[in-house]
Design goal:
This protein has 444 residues and is of the alpha/beta class. 24% of the residues lie in helices and 27% in strands. The protein folds into three domains: 2-114 and 244-313, FAD/NAD(P)-binding domain (3-Layer(bba) Sandwich), CATH 3.50.50.60; 118-239, FAD/NAD(P)-binding domain (3-Layer(bba) Sandwich), CATH 3.50.50.60; 327-439, 2-Layer Sandwich (Enolase-like, domain 1), CATH 3.30.390. Helix 1 packs parallel to helix 7 (299-313). The protein binds flavin-adenine dinucleotide (FAD).
Length: 444
């Protein structure tokens, strides 16, 4: 069986590894348009802050390892531009030589990820304006930063914007964040986002909310960001306003796409065309709480979907169980975490819901250095089923959000949360865990 995988990162290579493990006769060809395989984009911001020494540290497995140790024909500079499902052939061009290629497949995985959006603002081709996605993107940014401290403008206050802001700040640069929404981190409710705004102000980050970028000015290099309200001096600009799935190559294949262009897949990562699969940032993810397909492009989903795709392609039946909307972000000494749906999402879905909020210490208040934790829970008004949770604090946030994510995965109620047998000793918790204490404050 000849398997072709387009895309050599999280989803693509998770799949390729499952194929070679489960089909000993497999011929696996992976086609990557860049030159680097399997690297952790999630670590890129921390290079800027000096917390991770080198982009080499982000490479999980080198191309040579896939080739020599696992027998995968891992090709570089192979950009696929067209798929013909009738002849089961992919077509493309080698980026280093412009030589065209075509390769036939028995089973094909599309794992092409997503591209950062760069709106067509006037001046957006000026030097110093960057999006962050790949290791070469980061190297080009580092070159532009040089050795002096810079005025950095970050457009977009989502998780990449926040991580870049923190890391530029840590490296001694002055940071301005421009966000068109009324709050940073729009996956959080407005009341929770206030804690993020306060932290940004404490760190002397300039925030312009409710403000949209119109253009950039400068000679060769960017000098100012022009918004609908002001002009802001900037020597480096990071545009982090979202991503779009890389699915241009499926045009004219008949593969069904969602409204944002992501490939619609079922729980086995199959598309509507026989023997073509998709996984990761180029595909949809089934949301267990919303009970419909969603688009949440995260590495954690790409790895899981890639694994399921590889297993399915190799004939092993496994099901992608879906996501519940869990995410975690470090923002200076705060951890921002959420799972399930937000108030805005519940309103859009017309779920009748209640919320409960509490500020609680993360461990026994009498034990040294308890830190306050902001907890917000959301549950369905009629069934009491948990809908979501958001937690912000300095310590202990990660373990609570994962308990909540597990509860949501299993469609537990707010009452079930109270009944969980969670670990307690004073250095680790209170007798009633903060999420349980919050749950107990609900109206009966
Ligand atoms: P990608 O990693 O985008 O890989 C797709 C590959 O396909 C690329 O190598 C690309 O070159 C190749 N390709 C594309 N088109 C073609 C073509 N036509 N022909 C051949 N090859 C092609 N996620 C988290 O869960 N937690 C985090 O903390 C986190 N932090 C992040 C921080 C940053 C700065 C960034 C950029 C992303 C972060 N992510 C995080 C998201 C995560 O990195 C992605 O969700 C994940 O990489 C998606 O994996 P993928 O394999 O689907 O796509």
């Amino acid at each position: 069986m000849k398997y072709v995988v387009i895309g050599g990162d999280a989803a693509g290579m998770s799949a390729a590894m499952q194929i070679i493990r489960n089909d000993k006769q497999a011929e696996v060809i992976t086609l990557e348009k860049g030159s680097i395989y399997s690297y952790a984009q999630c670590g890129l911001p921390y290079i800027i802050g000096g917390h991770i020494p080198s982009t080499d540290d982000l490479i999980a497995r080198k191309r040579e390892t896939f080739q020599e140790k696992y027998g995968i024909d891992a090709r570089i500079y192979h950009e696929v531009t067209k798929i013909d499902p009738k002849t089961k052939t992919v077509y493309g061009q080698k980026r280093d030589s412009n030589v065209p290629f075509d390769i036939q497949y028995d089973k094909l995985l599309i794992a092409t990820g997503a591209e950062p959006l760069l709106p067509k603002w006037e001046g957006s081709k000026l030097n110093g304006i960057h999006t962050i996605k790949t290791i070469p993107d980061l190297h080009s940014l580092i070159e532009d930063i040089g050795t002096s401290k810079k005025e950095v403008a970050i457009i977009g206050g989502g998780y990449i914007g926040l991580e870049m802001a923190e890391n530029f700040h840590d490296a001694g640069h002055h940071v301005t964040i421009i966000e068109q929404a009324p709050q940073l981190a729009t996956v959080f409710d407005a009341d929770m986002a206030e804690h993020i705004h306060n932290k940004a102000k404490e760190k002397n980050i300039t925030l312009y909310l409710n403000e949209s970028v119109q253009a950039f000015t400068g000679e060769e290099t960017v000098h100012e960001v022009i918004t609908d309200k002001r002009s802001i001096r900037a020597e480096i600009v990071i545009v982090a306003v979202g991503v779009k799935p890389n699915t241009q190559l499926v045009e004219q294949t008949g593969i069904h796409l969602s409204s944002n262009g992501a490939i619609i897949v079922n729980a086995q990562m199959e598309t509507n065309i026989k023997d073509i699969y998709a996984a990761g940032d180029c595909a949809t993810q089934y949301h267990r709480i919303k009970q419909k397909n969603d688009y949440i492009p995260l590495g954690t989903h790409a790895n899981k979907q890639g694994r399921i795709a590889g297993l399915t392609m190799a004939g092993v039946h496994r099901t992608f169980q879906g996501v519940v909307g869990t995410a975690i972000i470090k923002f200076f000494d705060l951890t921002l975490a959420r799972t399930g749906i937000s108030e805005k999402e519940a309103e859009a879905l017309r779920f009748p819901y209640h919320t409960i909020k509490a500020e609680l210490p993360h461990i026994a208040a009498y034990y040294p250095t308890p830190e306050p934790m902001q907890v917000k829970l959301m549950y369905e008004a009629e069934t009491n089923q948990l809908l979501g949770g958001q937690i912000i604090g300095k310590l202990g946030v990660d373990k609570r959000i994962d308990v909540l994510a597990t509860a949501l995965y299993h469609h537990m109620t707010i009452q079930d949360l109270e009944d969980l047998d969670l670990a307690y000793a004073p250095p680790y918790n209170m007798v009633w865990d903060p999420i349980q204490q919050t749950a107990r404050r609900r109206e009966h």
